[in-house]
Each structure stands twice: as structure tokens, then as C-alpha cells.
Amino acid sequence: MFADASNFVQSVDNTFIFIVAVCVFFLVLITTLMIVFVVKYNRKKNKKAVNIHGSVPLEIAWTVIPTLLVLVMFYFGWEGYVKMQDAPPNSMIIKVTAQMWSWKFEYPNGVKSDTLYVPINQPVKVLLHSMDVDHSFYVPAFRIKKDVIPNYNNTAWFRPEQLGKFDIMCAVYCGLRHSYMYSAVVVMKPNDFKKWLDKQEEGKSDVDTTSSKM
After folding, report:
1. For a 10 Å CB count at each end of the chain, is N or C smaller?
2. What strands lie across the sheet with 144-148, from one edge to the other?
């Protein structure tokens, strides 16, 4: 879960852990207090109920503390969101087309593939477009997820920091074969990526030449 497969993993995971820790803390605190009060003020102990008029400091505390915690959560979330919106100027641009029920990737030189190949440590900006219904470009290992909507060009970016193969999923129900809409990001060494891209481009040129002769 915590492998640094992309530049966003650390910030997203830290925000997630902070929110979970706050929730667990208050869950344990409130549950413990409930049990203590149930035992301490059990009717069998003949405790006589007494009316109270409230406590201003207590009411201020349970208003201010949750408000501050929520603001801190918002700050971490907003800071991460802003970073995910600003792709570096040197990003590689790859067009991503979603349709029921597959992904297509097009590189700057016109090469197309069903699997996304990228070089390690190279910022990649994906231009997201849907041919039919709403989809969602989701790479769990990279901690990125962006809606892919018809008639709207959305974008996302990431910098892969670990070699390997990582799942791409559609995170929006898009029809009967939604669960089959899988692909992958293959992160390669720069030299290996260049060799792969050149090979694909040569194959594309051969197809184009053959087609023109026909």
C-alpha cells in the first residue's frame, strides 16, 4: 500500500492516515466514555438523576476542536488536489480514450497502444476523453483518479517512480462489462521505453506504407 510508485503516494497516504487516526481516536474516546457512563450511572446503583444547566467551556471545546480538525483535513486535501492539477511544463502528453469497455493510449508520435507505457521519473500528462459514457481513469498504485466524460476534455498527471506494471481501472460503473475494463501502466527505464516506442513507430510506418500501396 505504501510503496512510492508515483510522486503522489506519500501525500495521499499521509492525508489518509491522518484522517483515519482522528476518526479512530474519537471512536475509541466516545465508545469508552459511553461504557463508563453506562456502568457508573446504572439504575441498579440507585443513582439519582440531577438536572444540570450546561457548561459553556465544554460547549466551546466540542465546537472549536472538531472545527479545527476538519479545517486541517481540508488543508491537506486541498494542498494535494492543487498539486495534482498542475502538470510540469516538461510533461509527456499522452491522449487517453475510454470506451465501453477498453482503454486506448496515443503518444506524441502517433503510436497507439492498449497498454500505457511510460519512462520512469518522467512527468506524464494524460488527456482524457470518452467515446460514449462516463468512465474514470484510476491507477490505485499511483493514487490518481479522474473522471473521463463525453464531450469534455479532462486531464491528469503523474510521475512514475518505480519500475513495474500497475493496474488501470475504470472507477465509474459504465455498463455490463464494466468489471472487464482493465489495462495497465508499464513503467520502463528511459532507454527501454525509447526502444519500445521506436519499434512501435516502425511497425506503424510499415502498416501505413502497405495501406497506401493498396
Report:
1. C
2. 116-119, 182-188, 164-170, 135-139, 144-148
